[in-house]
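Dear colleague,

Thank you for sharing your sequence with our group. We've completed the structure prediction you requested, and as agreed, I am returning the results in plain text so they can be pasted directly into your records. Please verify that the sequence below matches your submission; if there's any discrepancy, let me know and we will rerun it promptly.
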Amino acid sequence: MAVALLLCAAGLAQAQTADATAPGAELRVITRVVAPFVLKDAEGYKGFSVELWQAIAKELNRPFHFVEKGNVKEIIAGVKAGEGDAAIAAISVTAEREQQFDFSQPMFESGLQILARADQTGAAGAWSQILPLLTSTSTLTVLGLLAALIIVPAHIGWWVERRKENHLFPPQYFPGIFHAMYWATGAAAGQQPDPLYSGIGRLLSTLLILGSLFFTSYFTATITTSLTVQQLKSDINGPEDLPGRKVGTTTGSTAAAFLRGISVEPVEFSKIDDAFSALNAKNVDAVVFDAPVLLYYAANKGQGKVRLVGPMLKKENYGIMFPQGSELRKPVNEALLKLRENGTYDAIYAKWFGAQ
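Please find the predicted structure tokens below.
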């Protein structure tokens, strides 16, 4: 009985392979939603890869239907399990994948890039760094010292000078204390204060001048250090800024492998849209993924919220994936070459990415 079942399963698999290569047989094409290559709405699928496959299928004169998966890892598993005759979306051609599958000639030139929040770089980033700095412990400490440097000497100065002949401050507390605070503020700012007449007053003036020098040095060092630390925490300008950060990408992607190669353990998501949401919610500091996908998001849903930073990290080619030994590879390559020669490929490219 078991032998019969095995023979039946083998026969079914053989029949499916024969159906895939038979003229006019409907092809099963595995894909996933990844804008702008594959998008899905109430009317069905659209996008660069969808329109390209539609043009290829027309050249082959073959009907087809899409089999949707969640991510590249699921696409690879689906092709390996025989759930599809081909796979197209934004699938990078790598040496490791070439050992397990067949690929068409490159259908798109791409690469990896970094996406960061808009408030992490540029002018918007400057304000996002200054505002927290104004309420930081360091700033409050500096302001406390400044208040003490003005209020305490002002009261001492007013007290010892209020009854002196040719007094600098009025004898009444108000407005005398305001005159004294104006005097102390000038001294704390490093200006030469008006001379006091008592010995205590002269000593106080000297101490204020020396204190202002200390305060200026302390203030400069504190603010400089705080700004430097804040910048290190906020700015992401290239791959060298990624170690130690939370960096999002999709499960099983070449971006995830790249990040591990530079000692960054990625935060993996099943869909790139989930990584975008995590970036906007500040659950990750950056997203590394295919440049055209990031560019499309930054120009549409992420406009004003995110921006691409740094150079292209790793150039890649996208291809159409087939099971090893697939007889579809040759006719698909021929169709793809024909579409490039007759201008159809360029027209589809221009529609989704602009003229080359």
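Summary note from our side: The first strand starts at residue 27 and ends at 32.

Kind regards,
the structure core
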